[in-house]
Model the fold of this input.
Amino acid sequence: MNDGLFIEVDVDASVAGDPALAAKLAEVCPVDIFKAGASGLEIVEKNLDECTLCELCLAVGKPGQVKVRKLYDGGALLERHA
Ligand code: SF4
Done:
């Protein structure tokens, strides 16, 4: 059920499957949306709507590998371009 979700995060498989990058995401997000598990990155869905749009996660990996989508704003995308 996605009722009430305002934020969606899209993490490239090459980042999600890299333990160091997954750990970095878990470290930078102030509201614990990312969790580094034994099998790679987990998205903590119950925390998604706590996203502060701080953009710290966008700096992890190569540009465009981590994206945050604002579902309430026509799907407007936050993404790092360079
Ligand atoms: S923008 Fe900030 S709060 Fe939102 S998912 Fe990324 S690191 Fe977490």
Summary: The chain has a mean pLDDT of 91. The pocket of iron/sulfur cluster is lined by residues 9, 28-31, 33, 51-57, 68 (CB under 6 Å). The first helix runs from residue 13 to 16.
